[in-house]
Amino acid sequence: MQARPPHEPASPRRPRCDDPVRLASPSGRWVIAAVVLGSAAPFVEGTAVNVALPAIGASFDLGITGIQWMVNSYLLTLGALILLGGALGDRHGYRWAFLSGLAGFGVASLLCTLAPTVELLLVARVVQGAAGALLVPASLAVVNSVFVEGDRPAAVGMWAGWSAVATAFGPFLGGWLVDAGSWRLVFASVVPLVAVAVPIALRHLPEARVPQPRRLDVAGSVLVTLGLGGVVYALVEGPRAGFTSPEVAGLGLVGVVLLGVFAWEQRRNPEPLLPPALFASRQFAGANLVTLLCYAALGGALFFLMLQLQNVMGYRAVVAGAALVPLNVAMVVLSPMAGRVTQRIGPTLPTTVGPLVSAGGFVLLAGVRPGVGYVTGVLPGVVVFGVGLAILVAPLTAAVLAAVPAGQAGIGSGVNNAVARLAGLLAGAALPWAAGLGGIGELSGPAFAAGYRRAMGICAVLCLAGAVVAAATIRRAAPVRPHVHPAVTHGCSEVQADTEMPVAGGRR
């Protein structure tokens, strides 16, 4: 081998996938910095945009339908493509997936900031969702693969903790930026995070890939995305244009057919995007149904609460954002306690009680109306809802993991993650129509106030149904592992580490 000439400087060597990193080393600290900064972008913006929705609606003179599309255009690609995003990371390397998703999210956020029309803003939101579907699973995969085995639990816990802080801080930041300047600053706020994270990741992030990546199910991803798009279009536009109009009925029917073809394709595919065999487990199917019901209630309730607080109650955006801080504080403080309780008694009682408590929070929030103070009218509902969610999340994760065969914890958790995000999508599409608000233009009059109360009642019923399903189907738990607390706009983001904590009655 030819020696390097003495005058030629040595180029910096990026760590390879077979060079495990110690958390306490300078390399480990740089890896954590890159991943925390990068993953903070979708977590911060996901919660902040929810607070900015009324301002976006006012800027473009949008009714409820336009506001729905602001949320659903992002959730559609995020939820439908997140399993494909994880598979792409497995195949091409987690470093590549992280950097590609991060750069794509940053560019899309910049496009959102500069969008001169609502149409261009919606297109940029679609791109954001697709980039997030690549970034979110890759961020954890990097942490969970590049560190030495003994340091992985602490590294995942550090990543999860900072992600929870970013999620909790998002609503307040979003409200402050809207009041300080414009809703456009909410999208612009993540660009500096991306600009700092990308060069750190390029220099310090090791490569890591799985030994035997799964084959990419591109056909399944296309079918489920187009199918959900057709169904969501019909649910959102139907109340305004009429469900029998050729465009609405036609696209809705096409969406249903494509989802049927997707289900057929998954059964025939040897490596499907969504393995049907997993749903043969009663507990796995039940836990995911609980996720669908409860996270639909979560997404729908917070969508309407932000509109009610700002458009009806007259809260400034920063105050409305701060109103949600107790919810996230309850999640950060109480979720670890719920995990420890689940280790002792199993998941059945927590996954039943959590939705019941959340339903009580929605009943209290239905009373939010002009003339009611924050401490007596808003805070109790937010706190009760947050406590119920904190009781639910960790046990639900443990129940999902217990229901999948050994070696399939990753795909089982990924499916549950996707279900949680799709729950927000379906709630954003169907709940306004179910509450009698589909297609209305005014977001502050008596009609909206009455629809808000109906929406909160529907969310309470969804959680009650979730409690019934949990009591009937969830019986055992796997080890509870560190997780990211769910963002208030797009569902949960459970993540797993390699270190187990024994659970009473649980098995792998």
What topology does this entry show?
Blueprint lengths: L25 H35 L3 H29 L1 H21 L3 H29 L5 H29 L3 H5 L1 H15 L13 H24 L4 H23 L13 H31 L4 H7 L1 H21 L2 H18 L8 H29 L6 H26 L11 H28 L10 E4 L3 E3 L15
Antiparallel strand pairs: 1-2
Helix pairs in contact: 1-2, 1-3, 1-4, 1-5, 1-7, 1-10, 1-11, 2-3, 2-4, 2-8, 2-15, 3-4, 3-7, 4-5, 5-11, 5-12, 8-9, 8-15, 10-13, 10-14, 10-15, 10-16, 12-14, 13-14, 13-16, 14-15
Characterise the protein shown here.
- By secondary structure, the chain is mainly α.
- The protein folds into three domains: 22-208, MFS general substrate transporter like domains (Growth Hormone, Chain: A), CATH 1.20.1250.20; 218-272; 281-508, MFS general substrate transporter like domains (Growth Hormone, Chain: A).
- The chain contains 16 helices and two strands.
- The chain has helices at residues 26-60, 64-92, 94-114, 118-146, 152-180, 184-188, 190-204, 218-241, 246-268, 282-312, 317-323, 325-345, 348-365, 374-402, 409-434, 446-473; strands spanning 484-487, 491-493.
- The model is unreliable at 1-15 and 482-508 (pLDDT under 50).
Instruction: Give the low-confidence spans.
Output: 1-15, 482-508
CATH class of the largest domain: Mainly Alpha
Radius of gyration: 22 Å
Task: Sum up the overall morphology in one term.
Answer: globular
The largest beta-sheet arranges its strands as 1-2
The total of beta strands comes to: 2
What number of structural domains do the residues give? 3
What is the CATH-assigned architecture of the largest domain? Up-down Bundle
Order of helices and strands: HHHHHHHHHHHHHHHHEE
- The helix tally amounts to 16
CA-CA gap between termini: 50 Å
